[in-house]
Write a structure and sequence with these properties.
With 79 residues, this protein is of the alpha/beta class. The protein contains four helices and three strands.
C-alpha cells in the first residue's frame, strides 16, 4: 500500500510541534512498521525546507532535519 503523508505531519514530527507531535509520530511509525510506502509530493520538499529554515533560523539545521525526515519518506512527483 502507498500513502501520501501531509506536509504538516512531517513538520509536526521534525519540529516536535505540540499538541500534534505524538499523534503524527505514532501514525507515521505505524505506517512504516506496516511496510507501507510513505510518499510526499515533490512540492512538499521545498515547503518543508522553507518552514524548517524559517523555524530554526539556520540553513544548516534545516538541511539536517530535512535529511532525517526524508530517510523514511520518499518525495515523488504527483500524477
Amino acid at each position: 500500500m502507498k500513502i501520501l503523508i501531509d506536509t504538516n505531519v512531517i513538520l509536526d514530527i521534525v519540529q516536535k510541534r505540540e499538541p500534534f507531535f505524538t499523534d503524527s509520530y505514532q501514525a507515521l511509525r505505524k505506517a512504516i512498521e506496516a511496510d507501507t510506502e510513505c510518499l510526499i509530493s515533490a512540492s512538499a520538499v521545498t515547503d518543508i525546507f522553507y518552514m524548517l529554515r524559517k523555524a530554526f533560523q539556520s540553513v544548516q539545521k534545516a538541511k539536517e532535519r530535512s535529511r532525517l525526515a526524508f530517510t523514511a519518506i520518499r518525495p515523488r512527483p504527483c500524477g
